[in-house]
Amino acid sequence: MKRILLILAALAAWQHWDRLEPMLLGNQQQVAEHREVILYATSWCGYCAKTRAFLGERGIAYTEMDIEKSADARRAYDALGGRGVPVLKVNDTVIHGYDPQGILAAY
Question: With respect to CATH, is domain 35-106 assigned 3.40.30.10?
Fold first, then answer.
């Protein structure tokens, strides 16, 4: 029974590591405040909606740029090598498409 509880606790910690890490590594929280996340997307894109939901579930603040409504957003998207949506820029890392593991790794 103890093994099962230990395994369940380890799985829960692994699943929620993004929430536990700031509590365990207090000095890293200041670094998190300076992260810049920009989502280049469209209103009709299903994967853009999934990316919005993913970021929202994890409490990751982001700025959304609609590449169809803003010429500046489109230019920035093109400069990043945009070849589909969503494109996410986390500080200096560019992520093409819906990639939850890539987002967390870059964040």
Answer: yes
